[in-house]
Specification:
By secondary structure, the protein is mostly helical. It has a single domain (5-142), classed as Hypothetical protein af1432 (Orthogonal Bundle), CATH 1.10.3210. The chain contains 9 helices and no strands. It has helices at residues 5-18, 31-38, 43-51, 54-57, 62-67, 72-81, 89-97, 100-113, 124-142. The chain is globular. The two termini are 26 Å apart.
Length: 143
């Protein structure tokens, strides 16, 4: 993890907004963005990894993140990483491929979300989701 004033701000926000959330196995959800952030190489990707699900999964808005001082590069990546259910999944992934920050975070996100050992029960839904994620990884790695 890279510790700068900006990454510390992102850590605090991620912890605060995900505080009551749990993942599919009942573990604190915030472990997921922290796991991704540990893999990132610079301040912008660390912040983006920590905040990658904030807009999609919490009441916090992009405007609030901008007001908190996050730079345009982080905000642009967060917009791309926020999946609108009306957009087909692979169209969403294709847009991410054009942004190096979003792409790095999404690759780590997909790898972590494809790790079936994180789940208590691996059912058909989990297997189908993991296959979709593997296809997205292959696309992003080839782009």
């Amino acid at each position: 993890m890279i510790y700068t004033p900006l990454t510390k701000r992102a850590m605090k926000i991620a912890f605060d907004v995900h505080r009551e959330q749990v993942d599919k196995s009942g573990l604190p959800y915030v472990f997921h963005p922290f796991h991704l952030a540990e893999q990132m190489q610079d301040e912008l990707t660390v912040c983006t990894a920590l905040l990658h699900d904030v807009i999609e999964d919490t009441p916090m808005t992009l405007k609030e993140l901008a007001e908190a001082g996050f730079p345009k590069e982080v905000l642009d990546a967060l917009v791309l990483l926020t999946h609108d259910d009306a957009v087909p999944y692979m169209d969403y992934v294709q847009k991410i491929a054009a942004n190096p920050i979003a792409k790095a975070v999404k690759l780590a996100d997909l790898a972590h979300n494809s790790d079936l050992s994180r789940l208590d029960t691996v059912d058909d839904y989990a297997l189908t989701r993991a296959q979709k994620y593997r296809e997205a990884i292959a696309f992003l790695q080839g782009s």
